[in-house]
Write a structure and sequence with these properties.
The complex is a heterotrimer of chains A (283), B (347) and C (271).
Chain A: H1 2-16, E1 30-32, H2 35-44, E2 50-54, H3 66-69, E3 74-75, H4 79-83, E4 89-93, H5 98-106, E5 111-114, H6 120-134, H7 137-154, E6 164-168, E7 173-175, H8 180-187, E8 191-192, E9 202-204, H9 207-213, E10 217-222, H10 230-233, H11 238-243, E11 248-252, H12 263-276, H13 279-282
Parallel strand pairs in A: 1-2, 1-4, 2-3, 4-5, 6-8, 6-10, 10-11
Antiparallel strand pairs in A: 7-9
Helix pairs in contact in A: 6-7, 7-12, 8-12
Chain B: H1 2-9, H2 22-41, H3 49-57, H4 63-97, H5 109-122, H6 125-128, H7 132-152, H8 158-182, H9 192-197, H10 205-223, H11 226-232, H12 236-241, H13 246-268, H14 274-282, H15 290-311, H16 323-345
Helix pairs in contact in B: 2-4, 2-15, 3-4, 4-10, 4-13, 4-14, 4-15, 5-7, 5-8, 5-13, 7-8, 7-13, 10-13, 11-15, 14-15
Chain C: E1 2-13, E2 16-27, E3 31-35, H1 42-49, E4 57-62, E5 65-66, H2 72-78, E6 79-82, H3 94-99, H4 114-126, H5 142-155, E7 160-164, H6 172-187, E8 191-195, H7 199-205, E9 208-213, E10 216-221, H8 223-226, H9 229-236, E11 238-245, E12 248-256
Parallel strand pairs in C: 3-8, 3-9, 6-7, 7-8
Antiparallel strand pairs in C: 1-2, 1-4, 4-5, 9-10, 11-12
Helix pairs in contact in C: 4-5
Classes of the chains: A alpha/beta (283), B mainly alpha (347), C alpha/beta (271).
Chain lengths: 283, 347, 271
């Protein structure tokens, strides 16, 4: 019965699909399926053009614009749910929601599949690509210029004698290089110690190894304060407070889970910390 | 003739000797001390043990001292106490049910304790009120011991007990998976492996402080059962005629099990088979006496868990193994062996 | 003075009466035999006396005191119970099993003292099991095990010994040995209540017999008064050869009767 109804709906939607005409038109009903495209969309588009966002966009622990996202309907990564919003543009990010994206493309929907921002430099390209699809080129360029200006203002010290830092995430993961976070650390003037441990991108770092790595700054990526898990409980292990009592900082994950204009904020806060602390003494 | 008899009279053969099992207890204690020290000195990073220990004793905050005190010491302490609790509970349950297959893991007590812990942990109660964590585990364990009584009965056959255990275990595991899937934290669903297989990695003194007093209390309750369990080896009626209050015995056993296993599982997950293997290996060494088997199994359980917890740190690849993986690898074949032997004897 | 007595005790299992207003009294020095066909309620009555089961009606007294007033440990020291089937879960050493008889005398953490060791040794000697004191009980023959269990009960040094078919499955030699043990316990001032199926042994060793039939006392008194033609026929549906050997009465069950017709006198040596 249900399947039959779903089939009917599918046929009906195909018949009325606004597929071909939308090629050059300015999209007015945009659905985003990914946390990172959600945030870029909020940064670039008028609220009236956003039809729906992924449910993760409302999670304040990982979404910088969580509050703004609450104004929009949330949509699960499911083709039928997306179709119900009659979108004229669907935003997705490579490697996620593949089945949904494939199905939507087959049904004739216009899908913009942005590449993942592996480095800080990719964020600009992402913004530019999305701005063009939205017809907001000027706004996109302005955002990029703003980001670059903010980065330039950080003015990292010469690369010798940089203080070291390690990011510690839920489940004991740390972030190596190349990565967005590694770039943000560098922009703030820190040397990512995970590089020396030969960890690429994400790797698990046993707690003991973390303490022994002895970074100048321990950056604990805090998430999920409200809902407990063992993965997050590790980040509250008492040893983390004892090993580096004066140079442990908790950073909210929403700043760098995705690349965006807001990511620079992470570097700015870290740079401020670097300016404050007497790193030579700490060594 | 009568003279010879007279001299014999006051020397009942082994009864008067106070040394039965002494060597076993001394040996087990030495073994535990050795592996406790090894547990402190071996880990993911090479640590100059004596140097770190020296620094720790002098109150210096070297990295070694911090790792030793904050990471390895709580881990070793928990291995000791969780293992002792599991060994002791296994021996007590086997003595009470007079069934060599009784064990907190097999009869579903551990899995139910895990369910109780999961419910209070992932839905935020333990964050507000830390003691809720072991209390949740205890509630789960309590329900399971009670269920086991209802399902398998006190005179239940070995088979009936195992079947009841299968039912309780499956139900508890299914509900645990459900609870974790519905939990608000996205990591929760992946953490079922901890609750079903157990681990002592990255535990802290917070966990020791929460669980150790309750485990100690449960252990004390169970250690008082020795005499009654001895009497029970002649059957319930004889035991009762010897002055054993079966109702009180049952209550103490259930309370002790709930306290000990509930607290242990709430901080370490369900570690299987320790309570099965240990009493079995030690029983002949204490002359099969349940009263001696209780303390011996506590020591043996601590020893086995310490050894297992060291072994899992040296998995040849990837992150360290779950403790329950290791104990199941050595425990399950043991279980097979016991089942085959029981079949030959009774079924 | 009766060491142990039951007065008008009734037990019902659901609606079925198992025992109906049964009286029984065993004074010091008495071996009291409980006889009757299967299902007559003998074991139930013994369990009542051992305080393992409460009666639905009636009173039970130990040494004149109602059971309810006797503390658990005092009762356990005074009354030893030997169940019909020996349960032996673990291969404990024989002397360990016997030593369990001392439990009611020991405080929670008290070790057996000199007095306890003596009692254990006495019990083992009385039951003649010294030869295998250190063997595992599970390796014993039926006869050896029965004696070990009796030694366990004797080690309690009880005033009342309750034994449920202690000689079942024993050969005649061991049957006589066990019955003699019970007699000796009575001679020392204790009381024994023993369930027996062997009418010959019952007549030979018991001072008094209580014959139960369908939950009621059919006959009670000295063996020759209880083991009469009518009672044997009503309770067991048997005819028996009865006679005397010196002072002792003996009964040899001879044939089963299926009709209610009066049995011809087949006793060559009738009274």
């Amino acid at each position: 019965m249900r399947i039959f109804a779903a089939l009917l709906l599918m046929v009906a939607t195909i018949a009325t699909a606004p597929a071909l005409a939308a090629e050059e038109a300015r999209p007015e009903r945009i659905v985003s399926l990914n946390l990172c495209t959600d945030q870029l969309l909020i940064a670039l588009a008028e609220p009236g053009r956003i039809a729906a966002l992924s449910h993760l966009s409302r999670d304040p622990d990982i979404s910088y614009y969580a509050e703004a996202a609450r104004a929009f309907p949330s949509v699960p990564p499911d083709a039928h749910a997306v179709m119900r919003h009659e979108p004229d543009l669907v935003l997705a990010m490579q490697h996620s929601a593949r089945n949904t994206v494939a199905l939507l493309e087959r049904l004739g929907y216009r899908v913009l599949d942005l590449p993942v921002a592996e480095r800080l430099a990719d964020v600009g390209a992402q913004i530019r690509a999305l701005a063009r699809a939205l017809g907001e080129v000027a706004r996109g360029e302005a955002l990029i210029a703003e980001m670059e200006a903010a980065l330039a203002a950080l003015d990292p010290q010469p690369s010798t004698n940089q203080p070291t830092a390690i990011v510690y995430q839920a489940n004991g993961f740390t972030i190596g290089a190349p990565s967005l976070v590694d770039d943000l650390l560098a922009a703030a003037g820190f040397h990512n110690l995970a590089r020396d441990l030969r960890l690429t991108r994400q790797g698990r770092l046993p707690l003991e190894a973390l303490i022994y790595a002895d970074p100048d700054l321990l950056i604990i990526e805090e998430a999920r304060v409200g809902s407990p898990s063992l993965a997050d409980q590790l980040l509250r292990h008492p040893v983390l407070e004892r090993a580096r009592p004066r140079s442990t900082v908790r950073v909210s994950a929403d700043l760098w889970t995705c690349g965006g204009p807001f990511s620079v904020e992470a570097s700015r806060r870290l740079a401020a910390l670097r300016a404050l602390a007497p790193w030579e003494d700490a060594r | 003739m009568t003279g010879v008899a007279k001299t014999d009279r006051l020397q009942p053969i082994a009864l008067a000797s106070r040394t039965q099992g002494s060597w076993l207890f001394i040996g087990l204690t030495l073994f535990i001390l050795l592996f406790f020290a090894l547990s402190l000195s071996l880990g993911r990073v090479p640590l100059a043990f004596f140097e770190a220990l020296g620094a720790l004793l002098e109150g210096e905050d070297t990295l070694g001292a911090i790792v030793l005190y904050e990471i390895r010491l709580p881990r070793a302490l928990l291995a000791l106490m969780v293992g002792a609790t599991l060994g002791l509970t296994g021996a007590a349950l086997q003595g009470y049910l007079r069934n060599p297959l009784a064990e907190p893991g097999i009869i579903g007590v551990s899995a139910s304790a895990a369910l109780g812990s999961v419910l209070v942990f992932y839905y935020g109660l333990a964050a507000v009120f830390p003691l809720a964590l072991p209390l949740g585990g205890m509630a789960g364990a309590f329900v399971a011991v009670l269920l086991m009584h209802l399902l398998a009965g006190r005179q239940g056959s070995a088979l009936g007990l195992i079947l009841a255990g299968v039912a309780v275990n499956s139900l508890a595991a299914a509900l645990t998976a459900l609870a974790l899937n519905l939990a608000p934290n996205p990591f929760a669903a992946t953490e079922i492996i901890f609750w079903l297989l157990g681990s002592l990695a990255d535990r802290s003194f917070t966990h020791v402080a929460l669980a150790a007093p309750l485990m100690a209390l449960g252990g004390l309750v169970m250690l008082t059962l020795g005499r009654a369990l001895d009497a029970l080896s002649l059957g319930e009626e004889t035991a009762e005629s010897l002055g054993v209050d079966l109702g009180a015995l049952r209550l103490r056993l259930i309370l002790g099990t709930a306290l000990g296993v509930g607290a242990a599982v709430s901080v370490a997950g369900a570690i299987g088979f320790v309570g099965l293997i240990v009493p079995h290996l030690l029983r002949p060494l204490v002359g099969h006496r349940p009263s001696l088997l209780l303390p011996a199994s506590a020591l043996g359980g601590a020893a086995l868990t310490l050894v297992s917890d060291i072994a899992v740190r040296f998995a040849p690849f990837g992150p360290e193994l779950r403790l329950g993986v290791f104990t199941a690898l050595i425990g399950a074949p043991f279980f097979f062996y016991l089942v085959i032997r029981l079949r030959r004897e009774t079924w | 003075m009766n060491l142990i007595e039951a007065e008008g005790v009734s037990v019902r299992l659901g609606r079925r009466p198992v025992l109906e207003r049964v009286d029984l009294a065993a004074p010091a020095g008495c071996v009291l035999g409980l006889i009757g066909p299967n299902g007559a309620g003998k074991t139930t009555l013994l369990r009542l006396l051992a305080r393992l089961h409460p009666p639905d009606e009636g009173a039970l007294r130990l040494d004149g005191r109602p059971f309810g007033e006797v503390p658990r440990r005092v009762f356990a020291r005074s009354v030893a119970y030997l169940p019909q089937l020996a349960v032996l879960q673990w291969p404990l050493a024989v002397e360990r099993v016997v030593a369990l008889g001392r439990l009611p005398h020991l405080g929670p953490w008290q070790r057996p003292g000199r007095r306890d060791l003596e009692a254990i040794q006495n019990a083992m000697e009385a039951a003649d099991i010294g030869a295998f004191a250190t063997r595992a009980v599970t390796t014993l023959s039926d006869g050896e095990r029965a004696r070990a269990m009796i030694a366990r009960a004797l080690a309690v040094e009880p005033r009342v010994l309750l034994a449920d078919e202690p000689v079942a499955a024993l050969d005649p030699g061991h049957q006589l040995q066990v019955m003699a043990l019970l007699r000796r316990h009575a001679q020392k001032g204790g009381a024994v209540v023993v369930v027996l199926h062997e009418l010959t042994l019952a007549a030979r060793f018991c001072d008094r017999l209580v014959m139960l039939h369908e939950g009621r006392v059919l006959a009670e008194g000295a063996p020759q008064e209880v083991l009469r033609e009518e009672t044997l026929e009503e309770a067991f549906h048997i005819r028996a050869h009865r006679g005397r050997f010196g002072d002792e009465t003996f009964v040899i069950p001879w044939e089963r009767v299926t009709t209610n017709a009066a049995a011809p006198d087949i006793n060559g040596a009738g009274k």
